[in-house]
UniProtKB/TrEMBL annotation, chain A:
Keywords: ATP-binding, GTP-binding, Hydrolase, Nucleotide-binding. This is ATP-binding protein. Signal peptide: none annotated. The keyword GTP-binding applies. It comes from Streptomyces acidicola. CDD domains: Ras_like_GTPase. InterPro entries: Gliding_Motility_GTPase, Gpn, P-loop_NTPase. Pfam families: ATP_bind_1.
Automatic annotation (TrEMBL), chain B:
This is DUF742 domain-containing protein. Residues 1-10 have a biased composition (Basic residues). It comes from the Bacteria. Residues 1-39 are annotated as: Disordered.
Amino acid sequence: MDFKNSDPVTGPRTEDHLPHTAEAGVKIVIVGGFGVGKTTMVGSVSEIRPLTTEETMTQAGIGVDDNYGSDSKTATTVAMDFGRISITDQLVLYLFGTPGQERFWFLWNGLFEGALGAVVLLDTRRLEVSFDVIGRLEERGVPFVVAVNTFPDAPRYPVEELRSALDLPREIPIVECDVRRRASSRDVLMTLLRFLHSLARAKAPA
Amino acid sequence: MTPPRRRRRYPKENPPPPPQPAGEDAEAQDGPPPKNPERLYIITGAAVEDGERAPIDLVTLIVASAELPPSATPEQSALLRICQAPLSVAEISAYLNLPFSVVTVLLTELLAAELVQARAPVVRQARADRSLLEAVMHGLQKL
């Protein structure tokens, strides 16, 4: 990594500046297998050109044994594409998606912590690649909805068949979407928000 | 055509055993001395070398709060320059092309020196409250 004085750092474009009233950021994480359309979804709803942040992790943190400092570990860089939606002058929503291997995301400290929830994006041609990530979200107690990105040549299953295959309880929404379309991606996010709202309502009845 | 079926991971995998300091020592005796991954990045000053990092989230909004001191490093001045308007830590990481953990260390120094402010810390509660969710829904509807 070079960080030289002479390297010009390109900051945000003027039109990408948040107002000075911006106070708080919230985040939603989009998860799913490689090539399922996470970055496309981020890009279709983001008000800024999607950016990439990264984190360096060591293999030592990945296994169950914590042989910290041993010679065998190698550094792995996990890249995360993200976009931004200004909700109000005070509140900003960030969407994170990643092309990397999903097992690494859960080692990214704080990625899921404090997240409103997650969207599991599915490709019905490769349903099984999402099984692991669904299990990990369940174990962590991260609320999520399932969105099926409808590729033209992908098999179409009735929602209840998918629910059964994914072994998901009835209350978890499963919706179809075309993440290339902004309105469709927005509807997926709305489905997640309504689901989160119902969870919050159930927890603290008015 | 039937889709493949997910099998739940029950019984749950055993949690990793707690790290044993004794084992670590043994490791150190056997092999070369442990390497600290943070040492890869020597751009951070001594101020926080052993201190705690500030509780910074990817979406914490940062804004510059003071003029650039003459003693600022190139990384600090770049960060202060792009944070004239509020910017999330994720965006800072992207624009500076530095890993999140390195930006966290940089920000810990700048926060301690009161050169930047972190806006309202992200609520780290298990579930967001309804008024926040309603605000987000309202904002999304305008998209």
